[in-house]
Amino acid sequence: MQKLTRRGWLTVIVMALLAVLPPVFYLTGNAFYLDLATRLTILAIAAVSLNLILGYGGLISFGHAAFVGLGAYAVGIPAYHWLYYSWGDWAVNGLVQFPLAIIVSAVFALLTGIVCLRTRGVYFIMITMAFAQMVYYLIVSIEEYGGDDGLVIDTRSELPLINLDDPLQLFGLSYVSLLVAMLLVRMIVNSRFGMVLQGAKGNEERMISLGFNVYAYRLTAYVISGAMAGYAGALLGNFTTFISPEMMDWSRSGELMFMVILGGVATTLGPVLGAVSFIVIEEILSTITIYWHLPFGLMLIGVVLFVRGGLAGLLTGRGGKDD
Amino acid sequence: MDLSLLFIQTLNGLQLGLLLFLVASGLTLVFGILDFVNLAHASLYMLGAFICASLTFVLGNFLWAVVVSLPITGVIGLLVERFVARPLYSRDHLDHVLGTFGLILVLDTLAHLIWGPAGIAVPLPPWLDGQIQLSETLVIPTFRVLIIAAGLAAAGGLFWLVNYTRLGMLIRAGASNRTMVSALGVDIQTLFALVFALGAMLAGLAGMLIAPITEASIGMGNNIIITAFVVIIVGGIGSMKGAFIAALLIGLIDTLGRSFLDDLFKLFMSSEAAETSAPAVSAMLIYIIMALVLAFRPSGLFPPRTR
What is the ipTM of this complex? Predict the structure, then answer.
C-alpha cells in the first residue's frame, strides 16, 4: 500500500464524512439532509463519469445530462408498462432496469460518439450539446410517456437484499456506487488505456504518430463515461420517482460541467467536491432568494475568471492534476 | 398534398431560416474572428425582445421601438465584451463555455427581476397586423413578409459590410490572421469590441422580430441558440456564407418536416404508425441532418479556408 499524499488524505476524509454524516442526520430526525446527500451522491457519480472524458480525455462534452436522462427513462418506461400494460415483474426488476439503463446510454454514446469524435474543439462542444437536445425533444414529442409533463415512477426498482424505498438503503447504494465509480475511473486513468487517453489530450498528433488509434480510444472512453452516467440516471429516477425531459436540459449538462471544473478537472476527488459545493451553494442561495441564479451565475463567472485548478487545487495548494 | 399549405409552410420555413441566420451570423462572426464561444448570445436575443417590448409601450410604435432598441442591445454587447468576454479571450473554450453559461443565468434572472415571470405580448401597428391576399385561397400575414424582408435586408447589409467596407476588410483580415492585423497597427481591441456589438445587435434584432409573434419571455433564447449551433456546425463555423445557406436549409427542413412528415410516412406505413412516429422523427430531423453532414464533412459544408 502506497503512502497517502496530502490529496489522498483529503479524499479519505471527505468520503468518510460523506458516508457518516447523512445517516447521522437521518437518524437524528433530519431526513431532509439525507435526501440532499443522496441527490448529491448521484450527481457526483455523473460528474465523476464526465471527468473521465472532460478532465482526462480533454473532450468537452456539453451533453452529459442526456445520458443521465436516458438512464432515468430506462427505469421509468418499463415501470410505466408494468403498471398500465401489465408487463411482467421483470419490468420493475432492478437487475433488468439498471443494466438496461447502462446499455441504452452506452449505445447512445456509441452512436453519437462515432459522429461527435470526428470533430474537434468547439465543434465537439456544440455537437454534443445538439445531440443531447435531440434526445430532449424526442422525449418531449412522445406523448405516451408524458412528453413535457414528465412521468411518475410508481414503483422503485426491485433489487435482491436491498429495498430502495428505504431512504437509508437508497443512500447506501448510491454511496457505494460513487466509491466504485471513483475507483473505476482511477483504475482506467492509471492503466495503459488511460495513459493513451491523457496522452491524446496533451498532444494528439504525437499519439497518432506513435501508432495509437486515438479515435478508438476516445470512443471507448466516451462510451464508458456515457454508460456510467446512465447508471447514475437510473439511480436518480429511483430517487426522485419523477422524471421529465427537463432532466436533460442543457443547463443540467452545464451544471455537471461546472461541478467538474469547480472541483478540479482530472482529479479523483474533484467531481465529488464540485457536486458537494454545487448542492450546498444551491441549497443556501435558494433559501435566501428565489432569484438565486443571479448570485450563482456571478459566482460561476468569478470561478472561471479567478480560480484555476478548482477546489481540489485550492485545498491542497497546488493546481492541476493528481500527484 | 395541399399546394397552398406547402407555399405557406415554405414561407414560414424561410422566415425561421432568416431569424436563425440573424442569430447564427453573430455567433459565427464572434467565433470566427474572436475565437470566442458565446453561449450568452441566447440572452442577447431575449434582451432584444424584452427591451423592444417595453419600448413599444413607451414609444407607442413597434418600428420606432426596434430602431431605438438596436443601439441599446449593441451597448449591452459592448458591456458583455468588456467585462466577461475580454478577460476570457486568452483562455480555452471550456472557460468560455462556463463563463458565458454563468452569464446566461445572470441575464435571465435580471430579465426575470425587471420584467417579471410572465411573457410580454408585443402589439403591432394596424398596417402590419393585417394580411395580404395573394389569391382567393392564399393569405399571408403582413408581418411575416416584413420579417422575411428585414432578414434579407440584414443579410444583404452584412454581406456588404463584410465584403465592401474598410471595417469588413479588417474583419476578414482579423478572421484569417489576428496577430498580423494587430502587428500592422490596427487597434484589434476596438475591432473585437465592434464585432461583438455587431453580433449582439443581430441577435437582438432577431429577438425583436420574433417578439410580436411569440411574445418576449424568459429563456426564449435557450431554444433557438441550440438550433443556431446546428446551423453554424452544418455551415462551417466562421463562414458567413455557410451560416446563410445552412440557416435557410435548417429552417425549411424543420418547418416542412413538422408539417408534412406524417403525410410522407403514410405513403409507406399505416396511418396510425405514421402519426406516432412522425412527431418524434421531425423533432430529431435537423440533428440527423447535422450528423449526416458531419459524417461526410467534419468541418461543415463551407469550412473557412484559413485557421
Answer: 0.83
